[in-house]
Amino acid sequence: MKYGTPESIAAAAGQVLYEVDETAGIAYLTLNRPEKHNAMSVPMRDRIIDLMAEAGDDARVRVIVIRGNGKSFCSGNEINEQWGQKRPHERRRTLTVGYRYGADMAWGRLGFSQAISRSPKVTVAQLHGYCAAAAYFMIACKADVVTAAEDTRIGALEARFLGPAGAVASVHINRILGMKAARRTGFTAMPMSGTEAHHLGLVDTVVPAADLAAATGEIASAIATRPPGHLLYLKSRLRAAEGVMDTSVPSITGLLVSHFLQSGPDEMDFWKTAKAVGVGGALDADKKRKGAADPRTGVTA
Amino acid sequence: MNDGTVELTKDHDRHIATITIRRPAAGNLMTRAMATAFAAHLADADEDDDVKAVLIRGEGDDLCAGWDPADAWEQYTDAPGGAVRKHPSQRARLIALDDAWWGRNGLYQRLLHCRKVTIVEARGRCWDTGLYLVLCADLVVAAGDATFGSPRWHNVGVDGDMSLLFATVGLKRAKELMYCNVAWSAPTALDHGLVDRVADDAAQGATELAAMCASIMRDGIVTEKYAVFASLEKLGVGLSFAATTVVGASLSNIHFQPGEFNFLREVRHEGAEAALARSRADLEIR
Amino acid sequence: MTAVDLRTADGRAYIEVPSFAPLTAHDPDFAGRLAAAVVEASDDDHVKAIVLRATGPDFAPATPTGFPSVAGTPTTWHRAFAASTAVYQATCFAKKVVVAEVRGACHGAGSALLLCADLAVASEDAAFGSPFLDVPESNFVLAALTIRLNRAKSWLLRGQTYTAADALRIGLVNRVVPTGRLRAETERMTAAVRGMPLDGVTMSKMLQQAVYDAHGVGREFDLADHYAIHRAAVGSGLAEERA
Fold it and tell me: Pairing mode, if any, of strands B125-127 and B147-149?
């Protein structure tokens, strides 16, 4: 069963592009919704799951590059669709729907992030602009190799009004960034630059934005020239070792976060505000609150 | 010199509680009584819905220069089974270390399992107990003069947490603190991921960070902290703390070889202050 | 037969070999004697620190792996490279502090051994190749805990060689010094270990082993046979690569 409106389901094919460079052995999965910073709708995420499976099965493909068109890699999940209001096809959100697209999408065994982290092929995420929220912890932190522009803004930027949603608790993220940086990104909602993410170890290669595509292509091509049997061996080694380290997330976390969090009387109700003045307006209102860090302010590259 | 206190103040308007270690003349060396008071303040902050973040700081020049060795022996003799024979039993040593420090009601676990965001303002010496406070808290803002290490390990062996240390700074860097009689400067600690920021004014930096954390919704903070508690189990921290208690109790009665600096005898004969000073004379700041 | 020399002085044991490349070549005799030297040094009450040193210009120059068949993996190969008594676990779980002194090239098993050491000193000309491409018994969990997960993944998949400066930046080694000062730096670092009480060193290493196991290091060692059989089955593709 596919969730979404007829319009959003129909749009998904054009919002996630897919092409295979047969000679190089590289599949490109490109987020293409630039007017929304490539925010992912539910049908877009469904399509990514399908495309990851297709690339996994395709013997020509050795490396999968995930990237975004426009100003940003991806700003996360489409919030108006999933969270802000009731969707036309459901009178109220049930746990069946919410679990599939909230908790399980993020952290569970059947979800979206597993399609990326459990791929038999080598995955490369190419980050620029914003890499926020779900794009941060479900794509960037799940890919094998990450490249980034120096001024990328990476992090759990939604944490202030949605809670850190597992960004601190993820064992995986603690192993990638170290314990303090995992806490810092989740509990302050501050973005880290591509340069900082490279220093912490999330990002393998950081370059000026203009050089990003070329640098990523070089890395992907070099990996893709290794013999396929060897690559499959290395990837299965990785999966086994991560199992041994137990890097998965206590998936129950997301359930609480995605359904039952309430704002206090003295806290901004993000959804109510977003409904009234739009997401941008809600972000502006949020910025004016005491102590808040605006995720849209620049980062030191 | 057993005169330290730990105080709690709360600013409900800004949603920040502050715990201050007050024993400045002794570098805020921590006693068992102070640890117990500290843990009680954390419980208080946990219960207060108008507190979102807890700031931890020390009065004077240092956050905390260590665990007070003068107090160490007494905590063993006071524990159940501690005064039956001349030397405290192993069960007494285990119980004492568990109750006040490493167990579920001990200072370090209480800090690690605080439901609110915890932020340390690290100044001067952050050694032994001071280092564990830094490791168990969520976030750390360091002053330029802060140093981080556990010189105690050089004198008796590593009797403290390794799991948080490994997961925070990596294996080889952790072992420099464990085996090389080294403490890190603030810039080194920042580079290695032990602290979040180095600030000229650490008090202001820590307050800013606390305000940022306090701008997050309460439900978000507390649910995430509970998720963190689950993930600490997956990171092996619970097992590590239990092993630490056993090793700590064992190290409290190790034998020294001829020619080795006998820290425990030095404490008995020369007093805690002199023993500490001598044992730390060769500590290298890197 | 490659010499494995063990001598002790001033609270340290020095294990010296021309290079550690025979480990990459999967020479079971060399691996056995190296493991025995580590255990002997570890058992010696006069030793608190164990130094692993190559007397030649390179710690572990690149060399063909000499890998056995799928059928040979569970027997001699297992005993020499994957068993709990074999060289890597003997080093990783030694009762004393192990220091790797690395100059020149450090490839294949050299890097696998480096990951098992507690501390490392390197010369400015040192270069660290990935242990994961052709040494299946190398421990990925140790790499992830040392240089963080994504760097370890990238080392495994891209197989890049780290310079000494990179290795210092990511926490793979503790100190980098000019080649002429390498031995002096090792002495300095081990002098600190020598200042610890003997029982304190041993007890610390016991606790370290428990914490390693909580983090999955032991479990990863136990999977070495599976990795080796898989690699032997696909031939690692290395022959294909050469062609």
Answer: parallel
pLDDT for C173-223, tens place per residue? Answer: 999 999 999 999 999 999 999 999 999 999 999 999 999 988 999 999 999
Residue extents of the structural domains in chain C: 5-178
Contact (Cβ atoms closer than 8 angstroms) between residue A225 and residue A180: no
Percentage of chain B modeled with pLDDT above 90: 83
Whether ipTM tops 0.90, in short, is yes
Nearest to C11 by CA among A198, B258, B176: B258
Tally of domains within chain A: 1
Asked if C174's CB is within 8 angstroms of B176's CB, the reply is yes
Range of the domain at A164: 6-263
Domain boundaries, chain B: 5-285
pLDDT exceeds cutoff 90 at A267 = no
Mutation target to probe the C interface, by most C beta carbons within 10 A, among B173, B180, B239 is: B180
pLDDT digits (tens, 9 = 90+) for A81-99: 644 344 445 545 566 666 6
Q: Which residues contact B172 (CB under 8 A, 6 or more apart)?
A: C118, C119, C120, C146, C171, C172, C173, C174
Q: Do C197 and B250 touch (CB under 8 A)?
A: no
Minimum mean pLDDT range among A264-268, B51-55, B181-185: A264-268
Interface of B with C (CB under 8 A): 153-159, 162-163, 166-167, 169-173, 175-176, 178-182, 192, 235-237, 239-240, 243-244, 247, 250-251, 254-257, 260-262, 282, 284
Q: In whole angstroms, what is the distance from residue B109 CA to residue C239 CA? A: 53
Report the CATH architecture of B5-285: Alpha-Beta Complex (3.90)
List of chain B residues whose C-beta atoms are within 8 Å of the C-beta of residue C200? 153, 155-158, 251, 254
Angle at B246 between CA C196 and CA B74, to 5 degrees: 80
- C5-178: what fold? 2-enoyl-CoA Hydratase; Chain A, domain 1 (3.90.226)
CB A122 within 8 A of CB A62: yes
| Residue A279: φ, ψ to 5° | -65, -45
**Chain A positions in Cβ-Cβ contact with residue C147 (cut-off 8 Å):** 201
CB-CB neighbours of A143 under 10 Å: 25
What are C88-120's pLDDT values in tens digits?
999 999 999 999 999 999 999 999 999 999 999
Q: Do A178 and B169 touch (CB under 8 A)?
A: yes
Q: What is the pLDDT of residues B76-129, one digit of tens each?
A: 999 999 988 988 999 999 999 999 999 999 999 999 999 999 999 999 999 999
**Minimum-distance CB partner of C199 among B163, B244, B254:** B254
- CATH number of A251's domain: 3.90.226.10
In a domain, A279, yes or no: no
